[in-house]
UniProtKB/TrEMBL annotation:
<keyword id="KW-0342">GTP-binding</keyword>
<dbReference type="GO" id="GO:0005525">
    <property type="term" value="F:GTP binding"/>
</dbReference>
<comment type="subunit">
    <text>Part of the signal recognition particle protein translocation system, which is composed of SRP and FtsY.</text>
</comment>
<dbReference type="GO" id="GO:0048500">
    <property type="term" value="C:signal recognition particle"/>
</dbReference>
<feature type="domain" description="SRP54-type proteins GTP-binding">
    <location>
        <begin position="271"/>
        <end position="284"/>
    </location>
</feature>
<protein>
    <recommendedName>
        <fullName>Signal recognition particle protein</fullName>
        <ecNumber>3.6.5.4</ecNumber>
    </recommendedName>
</protein>
<keyword id="KW-0694">RNA-binding</keyword>
<keyword id="KW-0547">Nucleotide-binding</keyword>
<keyword id="KW-0963">Cytoplasm</keyword>
<feature type="binding site">
    <location>
        <begin position="107"/>
        <end position="114"/>
    </location>
    <ligand>
        <name>GTP</name>
    </ligand>
</feature>
<feature type="binding site">
    <location>
        <begin position="250"/>
        <end position="253"/>
    </location>
    <ligand>
        <name>GTP</name>
    </ligand>
</feature>
<comment type="function">
    <text>Involved in targeting and insertion of nascent membrane proteins into the cytoplasmic membrane. Binds to the hydrophobic signal sequence of the ribosome-nascent chain (RNC) as it emerges from the ribosomes. The SRP-RNC complex is then targeted to the cytoplasmic membrane where it interacts with the SRP receptor FtsY.</text>
</comment>
<dbReference type="GO" id="GO:0003924">
    <property type="term" value="F:GTPase activity"/>
</dbReference>
<dbReference type="GO" id="GO:0008312">
    <property type="term" value="F:7S RNA binding"/>
</dbReference>
<comment type="similarity">
    <text>Belongs to the GTP-binding SRP family. SRP54 subfamily.</text>
</comment>
<dbReference type="GO" id="GO:0006614">
    <property type="term" value="P:SRP-dependent cotranslational protein targeting to membrane"/>
</dbReference>
<keyword id="KW-0378">Hydrolase</keyword>
Amino acid sequence: MFDTLSDRLGAILTNLRGKGRLSPQDIDATCREIRVALLEADVSLPVVRAFVARIKERATGAEVSAALNPAQQVVKIVNEELIGILGGETRRLQFAKNPPTVIMLAGLQGSGKTTLAGKLALWLRKQGHAPLLVACDLQRPNAVTQLQVVGEQAGVPVYAPEPGNGVGDPVTVARGGVQFGQVKQHDIVIVDTAGRLGVDAEMMAQAVAIREAVVPDEVLFVIDAMIGQSAIETAEAFRDGVGFTGVVLTKLDGDARGGAALSVRHVTGAPIMFASTGEKLTEFDTFHPDRMANRILG
Ligand code: GDP
């Protein structure tokens, strides 16, 4: 996903290498080039501004002028600031003191939510947990069946609407699913919710109603990293409309420019917790800001 950005930043920083001391002009030029590279990669403007300002401030400071190898020092600063933009520390799931831990998924239709539900369930099961999936996406045709398929692939049971337990009413299904999870001693309940193709008041109201009904320990906002700049508006709409405790980036295997993925933490204030990198259930892992920064800087 970040190949072009990675090449551009690599070239900019390599240009510094031949130099001994860095003049203020060198630093200005480098900052300008970094700014353009980030904007062209679709990183949102406030994030670019904050990032470049930090680089400039630190690159003109004592840590670079006193360094034996100033160019390397600038690379180190860019790396550290990139990690900062991506959230610094890895943020892990918070488990409830009294199980089950309820994890609610929210996001647009097509963001990869249902797939993610299966991925997360498999990942948790492999760690010795006993998750339950709850199918509350009653909007998209086949979403329930799709969740049942990924549940089967993950070896995780699915609580789905049936006559008598809330057909047509996602809030009743969500509540019933959590109760079922409790009774059957599942320590984690993952609630898949409906998305729409765009941000929509009815979808938000439904997500809020589900959130209020099940009081989740985590609300994970699932976002397709390929959707470019509109990712930011979508993330803000979900933050204001539903609220979330963490972000999952999907489709990081795509070849879009991906800058939105680099902006979402800074813009929403919520940590990126997981990343999806393919359609297979195993193509998923915890998001590590430092590893991502290293990947981008090559
Ligand atoms: P939902 O509408 O949010 O539940 O989205 P789905 O889980 O149905 O995913 C939409 C499409 O994206 C499906 O074709 C998935 O196979 C695909 N998909 C999901 N996650 C990824 C990913 O990380 N990488 C790629 N390349 N495709 C993905």
